[in-house]
Amino acid sequence: MSEYINNSHIRKEKLFALAFAMMTGDSDRKMVDDNWDFIQAVTPYDVFFIVDKLMKTSQDIGQIKKTTAKIINLYYEPLQKYKMKSGQEPQFIRSLEAENREVEVLIEKMKDVLKSLNTGLKNGEDITAGKEEMAAILTRLKEYEKHYLKKENILFPYIEKYKEDFRCVSVMWSMHDDFRESLRDLEIMLSLPQLSFKDFNNTMGRLFFSVKPVIFREEYILFPVAAEILPADVWDKMYAEAFDIGFAYIEAEKPQPHTPDSLDAGPDEDAGLLDLGSGKLTVEQIVLLFNHLPVDITYVDEHDRVRFFSQPKDRFFTRSNAIIGRTVQNCHPHESVYMVEKIVDAFRRGEKDEAAFWIQMKGKFILIKYFAIRNKKGEFKGTLEVSQDITDIRKLDGEKRLLDWE
């Protein structure tokens, strides 16, 4: 079979057939042995192709995550041997890898504290100090959220633009959400008077599994492919945009300021005013107005592509210029895409004009509303998302007619 190893098409199709059989429970050891030469020649590009095709065959993200874990375990050694092309590791990737090295140290420290907690639980000892130490580490681990936000809002959108079989990023995003959920569950458990040995260890296991395997997939699959397919100027933009989100555990040297593409092509003050029907403003004034509204705004056009978002001082939800032109479906985790599509489809059919949700986040009560945008003819022209902190608004009562600045 070795004469076929370099035939990329044959290798990918054979590997997909094996992965699909593993997902449906139809694989056996003989099937693995028969494809061993192909397995030993696997590349990061093959993984993109296989997982993308699996995503097209099933909507069960849980099943796909399990299958992906199995095949990557099978590909572990050949993927480790794959070398990124010399000189192709951009600063954006180096910063993400630096964050990974720091979080690995944090995870090892968590394992030590977990071992101590388990010993205390088994022996009936006072574990208050251990719980406090673990809670402090979890607080520190929250900073790693910036790492995932940079991937979801900057790296993933560019991969979607430059690579057709990009759907494996949805699997990775789902694992990011596993990390978030496990972190929340662990914080709740540590706040309770009694700590369940079984539940706590199971949740810790989920947390470890959502971090370590993702690091391997980043550094041996995602990053090598991204480094080879994305142009140098794109990496410069991505690194500049990363500073809007921030970095976890590391100091990064900020590049020269980058003007967003959406403003580069627009008219400036000298080019005149834009007639808005009820007034004329410069582009600069329009941008300032949007960014000073006490709400976050995101506009998705009638083709489901993100066209604009406001940039207030403190956003509730992370946005980056990389999402401009991205489909709204790809801007959400796989598990919540159905809800997005339900809302947009209802707007498009004229069945609904708005939808509302509210959540509690970081001590704030956030109202999230979606509005159907229609022109004078009633034609659907897109969806407007508006998010607002209404924590203080909910407390209002009576009237206030006087200024109380003094």
Please tell me about this protein's structure:
The chain is of the alpha+beta class and 406 residues long. It has three domains: 2-81; 91-245, Four Helix Bundle (Hemerythrin (Met), subunit A); 293-395, PAS domain (Beta-Lactamase). The protein is 55% helix and 11% strand. The chain has helices spanning 8-24, 29-34, 36-40, 44-57, 61-74, 76-81, 91-123, 128-141, 145-162, 168-191, 197-229, 232-245, 261-264, 283-292, 337-349; strands spanning 274-275, 280-281, 296-301, 306-309, 354-361, 364-374, 380-389. α1 crosses α4 (44-57). The protein is globular and about 75 Å long.
Give a brief outline of the structure.
The chain has 406 residues and is α+β, with helices and mostly antiparallel strands. It contains 15 helices and seven strands.
**Strands ordered across the widest β-sheet:** 4-3-7-6-5
Highest CATH level, the class of the largest domain: Mainly Alpha
> In one word, what is the shape?
globular
CATH topology of the largest domain: Four Helix Bundle (Hemerythrin (Met), subunit A)
The computed structural class is alpha+beta
Order of helices and strands: HHHHHHHHHHHHHEEHEEHEEE
Instruction: Write the CATH architecture name of the largest domain.
Output: Up-down Bundle
Compute the number of helices. 15
**Average pLDDT value?**
88
Tally of domains: 3
Cα end-to-end separation = 84 Å
CATH homologous superfamily name of the largest domain? nmb1532 protein domain like
Give a short account of the largest sheet: 5 strands, antiparallel
Low-pLDDT windows of residues: 1-5, 258-270
Radius of gyration: 25 Å
Helicity range:
55-70%
What's the number of extended β-strand segments?
7
Strand content: 5-15%
